[in-house]
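Protein: ParA family protein
Species: Falsiroseomonas algicola
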Amino acid sequence: MPQAAARQRAVEVKGAQCRILLISSPKGGSGKSVLSRHILVSAAQAGIKAIGLDFDRQQTFSKWAARRARTREAFPDFAETVVEPVSLTHWRGALRRTEGYSLAILDTPPSVEDHLPAIDGLGEAADLILVPAVCTQDDVESVAPWVKALAAKGFATSVVLNRANRRTTSYARMRGVLVKAGSVCPTELPQLEDIHVPSTKGLTLLDYSKSRGIEPFEEIWAYVRREIGL
Ligand SMILES: Nc1ncnc2c1ncn2[C@@H]1O[C@H](COP(=O)(O)OP(=O)(O)OP(=O)(O)O)[C@@H](O)[C@H]1O
Ligand SMILES: [Mg+2]
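Structure follows.
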C-alpha cells in the first residue's frame, strides 16, 4: 500500500483529536516503560487528558498504573492516570481507545522484529516516536539501524539517550553514532539510582517536587509537547 494511503488509514482508526506518542526500541531494558510513565504523569499534572496504552505482554506499564490507583485511594492528590493493557495483534482496535483523549502514550515490547506490521501501523498513526537507547555498544548497534529504518518510512523519530554518563568516552562515541543515524532529543536521562523506588507505589520522580533527577523528565516532556504541537 502506498505510504500516504497507509498513513491515512492509521489516522482514521485513532481518535481524531488525539496526539500519539509511540515509545519503541528494539532493545529490552532501554527505558521505554520508565519514559512512558513519566510522560503520562507529566501530561496528567499539566491537566491534559491522556491515556497510556500498554502493548507489552509483560504489562509493566499497566501494573504500575494499578499500583498507582491503589496509592491514590489513600493519597488522592497524586495525579490520576489511565493505562489500558492492549495487544499488538489488535493494534487498530487499541488505537480506537484513544477517542476522547488529547494524548496517547504507547509503551511497546522490545522484540520489534516479531511485530513489524503492528509497529509500522502504530508508527503511521504516531505524531512522534521516542526511541530510548542506553549508551552501550549493544544498544547502539541495534538502535541506529532501527532509527534509520523509521526515518526512511517518513516517521518523526527522536532518540532519548538513557543512563548517559558524559564523563565516559563511550558516551561521546555512542552519541555520535546515534546523531548520525537520526534526531536525538537534546535532553538525556542520566543514571538515576532511585528511579525504581517510587515505581513500587505506582509513582514517578515527578510525583515528588523535590526529587533528584526530575529536571531531565521535565525537559523531555517540554520537548515532546513542542514536537507534537500539544
Ligand atoms: N536512567 C535510569 N537510571 C537508572 N535505572 C534506570 C534508568 N532508566 C531505566 N532504569 C531501570 O532499568 C530497568 C529497565 O527500564 P524499563 O523497564 O523502563 O525498560 P524497558 O525498555 O521498558 O524494558 P522492556 O524492554 O523489558 O520493556 C528498570 O529497572 C528501570 O528502573
Ligand atoms: Mg517495558
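Remarks: The radius of gyration is 17 Å.
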